[in-house]
Design brief:
109 residues; alpha+beta; 4-stranded antiparallel beta sheet; two-stranded antiparallel sheet; elongated
């Protein structure tokens, strides 16, 4: 065990600010994230934990939010909605001459 005093996780109740979350100043990241995840998993209906590191006027902080199945569905929907391919559109060209898809040119007309 370390000689450091154990840092208590600040728990913000759901009635105060909506979704419960846990905030602590950034110290030993592996231990801190683990404590956050374990604390968040104690909430009823928690199926996952979203953890992030933020910068603020109080310094860097670790913030964790317990997610219910409904929250996970919302996260999945958002990710699916914003997912776009990183692959550039491929158009066969020789010099300045490019073969365009006939369906695209008819739609533009």
């Amino acid at each position: 065990m370390s000689d450091e005093p154990k840092q208590e996780i600040e728990k913000v109740e759901q009635e105060q600010e909506g979704v419960p979350h846990f905030v602590t100043p950034l110290l030993h990241i592996a231990r801190q994230v683990g404590e956050h995840v374990l604390s968040a998993m104690e909430h009823e209906e928690t199926v996952a934990v979203l953890t992030t590191i933020t910068g603020s006027n109080q310094g860097q902080q670790v913030i964790s939010v317990p997610l219910t199945a409904e929250h996970m569905q919302q996260v999945h929907s958002l990710i699916s909605e914003i997912h776009t391919s990183d692959e550039p559109e491929s158009v066969a060209c020789v010099g300045f001459h490019c073969l365009l898809d006939q369906e695209e040119t008819e739609e533009d007309s």
